[in-house]
Amino acid sequence: MTFSIALAGKGGVGKTTIAGLLIKYLVAKGKTPILAVDADSNANLNEVLGLEVKDTLGQAREDMKKGKVPPGMTKDIFMSMRMEEAVAEEEGFDLVVMGTPEGAGCYCAANTLLAGFLEKLVNNYAYVVMDNEAGMEHISRLTTKNVDLLLIVADTSRRGLQAGLRINKLASELNIGVGKSYLIVNQAKTDMLPDEVTAAISDDGLELAGIIPQDDAVYEYDLKGKPTIEIAQDSPSVKAAFDLFDRILGQPA
Length: 253
Ligand SMILES: Nc1ncnc2c1ncn2[C@@H]1O[C@H](COP(=O)(O)OP(=O)(O)OP(=O)(O)O)[C@@H](O)[C@H]1O
Ligand SMILES: [Mg+2]
Hints:
Blueprint: E1 3-9, H1 15-28, E2 34-38, H2 45-49, H3 57-65, H4 75-85, E3 87-90, E4 93-97, H5 108-122, E5 127-131, E6 147-154, H6 158-174, E7 178-188, H7 195-203, E8 207-213, H8 216-224, H9 236-249
Parallel strand pairs: 1-5, 1-6, 2-4, 2-5, 6-7, 7-8
Antiparallel strand pairs: 3-4
Bound molecules: adenosine-5'-triphosphate and magnesium ion.
The site of adenosine-5'-triphosphate has 19 residues, from helix 1, strand 7 and helix 8.
């Protein structure tokens, strides 16, 4: 059985960073193999993971639609070749990038092949970690259907938190099939949240998984273009993230 984890939240709160820290955690705990899915059309999870991406599923779909299938090759074979190529491999985890969403016109045939491929692909992994685009619309898309764990990331700002609570509400209304959701407060400047914040979270019935501090190491790695996943184990954000994941994922999946 594959255990799927999706990240959601307002823009720039740290979804991709936390997806990277989660993959670092799962690899360290031997909870492998993992499939990382970058479902953000402005894909950058590969940078956090230090992987080069040669192709995206969206590009394969686009090329099939445009009839770029070589003569003598069936569309099925073309798509399966391209989709295989779009899976980047690393020790313990693979990454697949969804790419830009479809344009106008009918992508039905390509989408059917793509959906079939994804379904088979996902079954090869113990864990799937899905990094999503900012906002709430995304949550209603196919990519976030049936997640075992929804991690809603917020910063300590009032608006960040409100966005997080709205996402949680939307997820329950849409009936997406979320096993469990947690809030993660990221880039915190103190160890403790103000009482007002804690109260607002529990009033909404959302459970706080924990807080991850503002960490200069994250900022510096980002600035230098170094993969976040390589940050030292003893840095504050990694320690906090590992403790947090131990609490919510500690038990065997
Ligand atoms: N705990 C942290 N400490 C310091 N900097 C952080 C922390 N978490 C994230 N950042 C920085 O904040 C910025 C935004 O983070 P990230 O890209 O992970 O957010 P996002 O929610 O995925 O954004 P988007 O909505 O654009 O996809 C990055 O520059 C990242 O390095
Ligand atoms: Mg992101």
